[in-house]
Amino acid sequence: MAHTCAKQGAHLILASRDVDRLSKVSEECIRLGAASARVIAFDASVTDDCERLVEEAFPDGIDLLILNHAWSLWQHMDFGNPRANVDLVKALAATNYFGYVAIAQFALPRMTNVPGSKLLAVSSAASFVPIPSKTHAYSASKGAINNYFTALRSQLRIAGYRSPSVTLAFLGAINTEDFSVVVKDSLINKSTVSAESTG
To answer: φ and ψ at 78, to 5 degrees?
Structure first.
């Protein structure tokens, strides 16, 4: 997405905890035609960081805000350790859900007065159908995004704001190392269940 915006000559703000990786993305964006590409370090699970990011990066207004950060932790539920199950869901929700909410809320005053501004919240197909095995916490956080930003879109219109538009994007499988492990594990579990069922 950053590369696509760069090719349109956009001024980009790239924010993440992984500044080293984003610095490489920033350099590539400049080569692709971005008018500028600034990197800012922040932690989406920390509300104060989300507020600081918006204030530092967007003093005037925001034309396009893309929320695309996510933390993936693939882990089975441990039915012998209920607290660990709760902590896992809370940890992923802090970044994947509450991070989206915080940035969006702090950004809205800088978007409602910009005609044609757009807010894009990136979700996942896993929010509808979780992959069997280890994605329950990740899928739950993405499902929360779907409902929140659908409600936000309606609330903005009810309040009389014409901007920003609010769009949800549902990404399918992305070929990453982590995802490959999850799929492999799911297939193994499915084979085991099938064998037990027919045996």
So the answer is: -105, 100
**Bridge partners of 36?**
11
Which of 48-52, 77-81, 96-100, 166-170 comes out lowest in average pLDDT? 77-81
Preceding amide of 115 cis, omega within 30: no
Residue 153, Cβ density class (10 Å: 0-12 exposed, 13-18 middle, ≥19 buried): middle
Which strands, in side-by-side order, build the sheet including 118-124? 64-67, 118-124, 165-171
**186: which 2 tokens?**
């799911």
Residues 13 and 26: beta-carbon distance below 8 Å: no
CB 133 within 8 A of CB 182: yes
The CA distance from 85 to 80, in Å, is 9
- Rounded Cα gap, residues 149 and 155, in angstroms: 10
Q: How far is CA 143 from the centre of its chain?
A: 11
pLDDT surpasses 80 at 174: no
Chain-centroid distance, C-alpha 11: 21
Q: Which class does domain 64-198 fall in?
A: alpha beta
The answer to whether 138 is a known catalytic residue is: yes
Q: Rg for the chain (alpha carbons), in Å?
A: 19
Locate all alpha helices (DSSP H) within 33-135, ordered by sequence: 47-57, 82-96, 98-107
Q: Which of 100, 138, 148, 161 is catalytic?
A: 138
